[in-house]
Each structure stands twice: as C-alpha cells, then as structure tokens.
Amino acid sequence: MRILAVITTLFIAMPLHAQEEQGRDLMTEALRLFMKGLMDEMEPAVDGLESFLQDLNGYHAPQIMPNGDILIRRKSPEELGETEDGEIEL
C-alpha cells in the first residue's frame, strides 16, 4: 500500500517539476531579452559618455581660488602631445 502511495505521489510531482523547469526557462529568456533591450537603449548614452570623458582629457583638474572661483585650465598643445601639424603623438 505504501509503495502505491509513493508511486502515485511521484507521478503527480513529475508534471509539476516539468512545469517548474519550463517556468525557469521562460524567466531566464525574459531576463535575457530585457537586458538586451536595456543595453540597446543605453548604447547611445554610453557612447556619449565615452566621448565626453575623452574631451575632459584636454583640461587640467579644477582649481578652487581663495575667493571661491573655480578655474578649469585648458592643456597646452605640448601637454597634450600634439606636434606642429596638429597630430597627436602616441
């Protein structure tokens, strides 16, 4: 009698386990699609931030003057490593 109860319980639990596994697969796929969409939407912003950070390379760190003014000095061509014809030496 106990064996019959165990076998019946296993047959009932098998479809539930299969549904749980399928649910996990669907959740994984949904998360993957969500992250792909998020990355596609954020790509232009990341590219803009990258170019902004490269532009900051042409300036010295800000200096706070005693009167509270903030100076941001541009680097000279020599400090940037540019040659006379405008090319940048690497």
Characterization of the model:
It contains two helices and two strands, in the order αββα. It has 90 residues and is mostly helical. Helix content is 64%, strand content 4%. The mean pLDDT is 78. A two-stranded antiparallel ribbon has the order 1-2. The N and C termini lie far apart (83 Å).
- Write down how many β-strands occur, each being a DSSP E stretch of 2 or more residues: 2
| Main pleated sheet | 2 strands, antiparallel
| Percent range of helical residues | 55-70%
Main-sheet strand order equals 1-2
Structural class: mainly alpha
SSE blueprint:
Elements lengths: L1 H54 L7 E2 L5 E2 L5 H4 L10
Antiparallel strand pairs: 1-2
Salient structural properties:
2 helices, single chain, rod-shaped, mainly alpha, 90 residues, 2 strands, two-stranded antiparallel sheet
Task: Explain briefly what this protein structure is.
By secondary structure, the chain is mainly α. Helix content is 64%, strand content 4%.
